[in-house]
Amino acid sequence: MLEQHIKVMSLLQKAGDITGRKKLQKMIYIGKKLGMPFYEKYDFRRYGPYSEELSLRLEELHQFGFISEVREEKAGYHQYRYELAPMGEHFLAGKAERATFAEQETIITEMNACSSKFLELISTVLFLEPARKEEVIRKVHTLKKTQNYSGEDIDRAYSYIERWKQQAK
């Protein structure tokens, strides 16, 4: 019971804190595509891959008191910062048989250091796989027209994906 919840909590424990719902959604999607044991279903939405399941799971974890969700005002808009709450730390301490993401720590740290906009691009590229790069570039420019991603941004996204895939082996 709560297996999938525990995986989300374990990722948060490894990341420290994650600022932004979109960023957390993208990190878990990218992790899933890299072989981390996440099983949420994702659909493509305005900001790239999105999981209603994950959104509900985060809400439940917050209601259980296992994660903290702090709303922050920033330049005229609000965003949420997530971290594992003390009650969540205590709960995880009793779960010896769980994903700890020790092998993926570097990937998780690097993802958390990226902007949510860049993670949106990476997750969109991964969502469009296995299409050829030229096709992905065309679709990114169509689907993400307002983001104004450059060819350099897309090349950088591919570079991160390739490096993370190598690290995830």
Detailed description of the structure:
The protein has helices at residues 3-15, 21-33, 52-64, 86-93, 105-113, 116-128, 133-143, 151-168, and strands spanning 17-19, 43-45, 48-50, 67-74, 77-84. 58% of the residues lie in helices and 15% in strands. The chain has one domain (3-168). The protein is an alpha+beta fold. A 3-stranded antiparallel sheet has the order 1-5-4. A two-stranded antiparallel ribbon has the order 2-3. The protein contains 8 helices and 5 strands; from the N terminus they run αβαββαββααααα. This is YwgA family protein.
Brief descriptors of the model:
alpha+beta, 5 strands, 169 residues, 3-stranded antiparallel sheet, two-stranded antiparallel sheet
- Which stretches are low in confidence, meaning pLDDT under 50 for 5 or more residues running? none
- The percent range for strand residues is 5-15%
Largest pleated sheet: 3 strands, antiparallel
Q: What class would the helix/strand composition place it in? A: alpha+beta
List the domain count as a whole number: 1
Radius of gyration: 16 Å
Distance between the termini: 28 Å
The average pLDDT value, as a whole number, equals 94
How many strand segments? 5
Share of residues in helices? 55-70%
How do the strands of the widest beta sheet line up side by side?
1-5-4
Protein name: YwgA family protein
Organism: Natribacillus halophilus
